[in-house]
Amino acid sequence: MDKQPLRERVWDELEDEGEARFPFPPHGRIPNFAGADRAAERLAETDAWRTAETVKANPDAPQLPVRRAALRAGKTVYMAVPRLRDERCFLELDPDALDDYDAATTVSGIGEHGRQVGPDAMPDIDLVVSGSVAVSESGARVGKGEGFSDLEWAVLRELGLVDDGTPVATTVHELQVREEDWATDAHDVPLDLVITPERTVETGGVGKPKGIDWSLLSETDIEGMPVLGRFRDGSD
């Protein structure tokens, strides 16, 4: 099936069954869900989490417990500046430089407490945590449809900060783990770990993108994301 009808089905089911959590409605976003705290706890039990010193995370509400857990475990957290609109396109949350982990990890507090850094100031990323609307047990992922999560991976890959061995995880509600078949694209980043409040799925996902797919970007897109300029000449 197409991705948008699948998104709508997931959003509707989370809302209709009372499993969605603030912010409401779940539609049009990475949906927050009942049990997000427990899913974060399960993620923290994995080897990928235990060995990670740096975590690239999404800023959405359902992964708030993941971001807080990372800082409390002494991990440095990186998140992209919205729409990669600045040359210094990532925000760094260093647990040693923060006094209030709870404030720093909220959607509104990330920009205030995070230190904006350019790609040259970033270390290798040990674990990527992505927000999802729908996922499969084989590692396919559907986001909210804007494509920035996959583009952020592609930028990190171009920089050599992630590679095929970098684990990619998501935390979701069981309703978001789907049996429907949907088409995946070459730029879609497969998941290695799908974590729900009830279980941990090691997907065996393969085929992580090697870099930026320039065919998906317009001139306006490229002009609005200055970091892309450093890679473009080499793509021609």
Structural description of this entry:
This protein has 236 residues and is an alpha/beta fold. The protein contains nine helices and ten strands. Strands 4-3-2-1-5-8-9-10 form an eight-stranded mixed sheet. Strands 6-7 form a two-stranded antiparallel ribbon. Helix 2 packs across helix 4. The termini are far apart.
Average pLDDT for all residues = 95
Low-confidence runs: none
Number of helices: 9
Question: Globular, elongated, flat, extended or rod-shaped: what is the shape?
Answer: globular
Which bin fits the share of residues in helices?
Answer: 25-40%
- Work out the radius of gyration: 17 Å
Number of beta strands: 10
What class would the helix/strand composition place it in?
Answer: alpha/beta
Largest sheet: 8 strands, mixed
**How are strands sequenced across the largest beta sheet?**
4-3-2-1-5-8-9-10
User: H/E series, N to C?
Assistant: HHHEHEEHHEEEEHEEEHH
What distance lies between the first and last C-alpha atoms, to the nearest angstrom? 34 Å
Strand content: 5-15%
Oligomer: single chain
